[in-house]
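[job 4471] stage=fold_predict status=RUNNING
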Amino acid sequence: MNLDNLVKHYYLNAPLVMSDYPRREFAFQHWNQPGPNARDRSFGSEDELREALKILSPKAVYASNALYLDPANRDKNKKDLKSTDLAFDLDFTDLPLERKSDDFWSNIEEIAKDTALLVEETLPSLGISKECLLVTFSGGKGFHVRVNGEEYRSLTKNQRRQIQEYVVGKDLSPIFTFGYS
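[job 4471] inference complete, writing structure tokens
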């Protein structure tokens, strides 16, 4: 089985865990090309997306955290943003120097620990159920954690900032919290 057939077989059978297909912008990364390079795509259903994946067999597929009235519009100002998923992007490039390594897999292992902490402890401490979370490998340097649920999409910018600051421990004093600096 060649690579193209292997990828097509994968996309035919892979679980595509997503909601609101018609409202999301999808992007594809074609082989031997940088980053997502085919943007502004929209699909009415999982079946439509799967059919496109079978035909295109891209290296990677991306779905927006944002939901739009017209996600396929090439003019960003005319997409008409309706809501945005609460999501977290954890990359090993954000690890403190003392936790970084020259080895890719060691770095992935380190950021996986942070992702597990976010999913198992931090978000549940905010009342966000683990059952609402979708964790995916970003395809590069870490993991994405998406919080499913309409109640999280309606959070204000200020509420999202407060959650972010809580998650990263902004203004947390290690000396007072953990007994060391």
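[job 4471] summary: The mean pLDDT is 89.
[job 4471] exit 0
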